Inverse folding.
């Protein structure tokens, strides 16, 4: 299933608003990653990112940093995976948790596929078990 990225973006912007997080969009160098600040409850997204298909997961990731109160200005979206205790891993898990309700809404469990979710939102492969578990949790409600 193909997901309209504008709908996914709007969904995440609504979540950001619920958490009182400002999202700013800027034209930056294509290699400048997005960033976030818990102190200022804000996220800055790069409209010119060189891999536009990653922007939705990036937005969810940065929102997750602010929701979880990650201190300091965070701009390590592409930091190396350093284990389940790293701030980046936790932000990626938070991003999955933010996106699962959008992906699953109005969809029968038989039609949901974790691989499709990961492909649609460019979720790193090491999060496959997290995606599967979060989908199960969503439908267990």
């Amino acid at each position: 299933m193909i997901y309209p990225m504008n709908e996914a973006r709007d969904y995440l912007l609504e979540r950001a608003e619920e958490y009182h997080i400002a999202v700013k969009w800027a034209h930056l160098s294509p290699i400048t990653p997005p960033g976030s600040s818990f102190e200022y409850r804000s996220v800055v997204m790069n409209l010119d990112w060189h891999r536009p298909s990653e922007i939705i997961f990036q937005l969810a990731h940065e929102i997750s940093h602010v929701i979880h109160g990650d201190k300091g200005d965070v701009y390590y979206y592409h930091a190396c995976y350093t284990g389940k205790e790293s701030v980046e891993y936790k932000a990626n898990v938070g991003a999955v948790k933010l996106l699962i309700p959008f992906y699953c809404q109005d969809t029968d469990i038989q039609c949901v596929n974790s691989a499709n979710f990961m492909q649609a939102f460019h979720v790193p492969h090491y999060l496959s078990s997290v995606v599967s578990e979060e989908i199960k949790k969503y439908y267990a409600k």
Remarks:
- The CA atoms of residues 30 and 138 lie 35 Å apart.
- DSSP finds five helices and four strands in the chain.
- The beta strands are 22-26, 35-37, 42-46, 73-74.
- The domain at 5-140 is CATH 1.10.10 (Arc Repressor Mutant, subunit A).
